[in-house]
Amino acid sequence: MKKNKMICSIGQKTLVFCASIFLLSIFVFFVARLAPGDPLEAYYGDRVERMSVQERMRAEMRLGLHDPIAVQYGRWLENAAAGDFGISYKYKMPVEEVIESRVQNTLLLGGLGFLLIFGGALLLGIFCTWQEGKWLDRLICQVGTITCAIPEFWLALVLILVFSVELRLLPSSGAYDVGGSGSIGDRAVHLVLPMTAVVVNHLWYYAYMIRNKMLEEVREEYILLAKAKGLGRERILLVHALRNVLPSYLSLMAISVPHILGGTYVVEAVFSYPGIGTLFYESARFQDYNLLMLICLLSGAVVILSNLLAQGINEAIDPRMRSTAFVEKNQEVKS
Amino acid sequence: MNHSFEIVGIRAQEVKQIKQRRRYLSGLPWPALLVLAIMILGCLAVPWLGVRDPAFMDMANYNRPPDMEFLFGTDTMGRDVFSCIWHGGRVSIFIGLAATVLSTFIAVVYGALSGMAPVWLDDLLMRLTEILLSIPSLLLVILLLACMGKPNVFSIALVIGLTSWLAIAKVVRTEVRQLAEADFIAAARIMGGGTFYILRKHLLPNFLASIMFMVVMNVRSAIVYESTLSFMGLGLPLSVISWGSMLSLSEKALLTDAWWIILIPGVFLATLLLSLTSIGNYLRKEVNRKESNL
Q1: pTM (predicted TM-score)
Q2: What ipTM does this complex have?
């Protein structure tokens, strides 16, 4: 019985995932093709301006750009189902290969940043709850609010200005030295500034949420009971209060994925870090449809997947969240 | 007197006064409000301040560090940064406000409709917002902006407004779902109130407090979007002065070590965002205040 339910839940989630990706692909496809830019420019560069009408026609025909959008979409879908996402107009390579060469850089920056942000935010949030109202908590709150208010790209700029231009300590762009072997040390040095920009910008936002959630939790009756039972502050905070905060923290982590992903993309662009973000701006600017499409789908897939994952985790931890039946029942009781 | 039951042995308990009603206007984030007021007044009053023409390119004095003549220096094209700050602020703040008005309007209407709709339609509408929320919003903004052709102030405000209503709509929908069952809504309906009348008169005042924080934060993020886009060359062109487009000169500024071109617009931007954030936090904090049990 229980197993059946789980399979059912997984099946439902897979269905939601597929439907979301499908809708997303339609949306991105149509929006991208409605843009007034000229995709031939990405393919042929400046030569486009010297092309005759016939040459243009032939080129468009060859790239399949003269058909109605719906037909183009159908063809794209057919090819994509067979694992062929088309070629990048700019790089003249299959888009999977273009992305493959960049994706590890983004994973490194985004993934490591994600872990640092959420590990740090949890610690910072608990610490601030511990110190609630004392000077250290207030100081951290003030500093945090300031770091949070700074736009990401400007923070990145200031970091470049201070550490690369003035102090000449760290490199300002790229993921490794040109011509270098890309050793671990070299990569790490190139990662410091972008990583700082990503982490500093997001850290406080989540730490503050943890702090607020914990402060709310600490005002519950059961904390009073635990205290009356004679438990120590650490135990109450780390075992009793934290346990009730963690599920919402997990879903917060999932919801934050688009934010952090977007933030990583911005930072990548400022540092000309060869990742998916830089690629995205290029493809949006040069109307590199196939590339744009796959990047959007991949980003969307990551986000939707993490949303569903969060739902699953929540359901596993808190049985009340299993399906909307509970919520509806409650509403019935109320009415 | 009826002595049917009697309470024995209860210690008189002191009733804790949790929150005293604070005096009117005390506890407001005054520094933030003051900074905001100065910035807005400065931007509004700039034609009468007697600053230089921000668009004038002084070729004799380009890339000058701040001094008495040019308070904030000049940029790589010889424009006076001090004057650009105030003129650019108008554009940045306008985009922030316009985008927020648009997104709040869409969010309230969409959220309320979804909240009052039958369950299947509600499910459908909410799924749709979830799918849209799953695209990193910056990607969405860039995609839509690409459709609008050459970006200008209005198209940027429009695109940011069109993409940032989702989160508020979800909150509005939850609130409306809870409120819609209430008797006073039924009473209003029986008396013949239309959907929009009920929304405006009965629902909006009830959920306004819970979205105010998000609305203020939306102004903030709209300003961030504008500056990020313009900085990357996807938003406003250099000739339209905003804090973002001023920062798009920063690549050249880095090469010539012109720190003022990067730092000054950024500091103004960050200060504005900071004061908006603290006003937002104040609004959020107002909702509940209780004593700690720890």
Answers
A1: 0.79
A2: 0.77
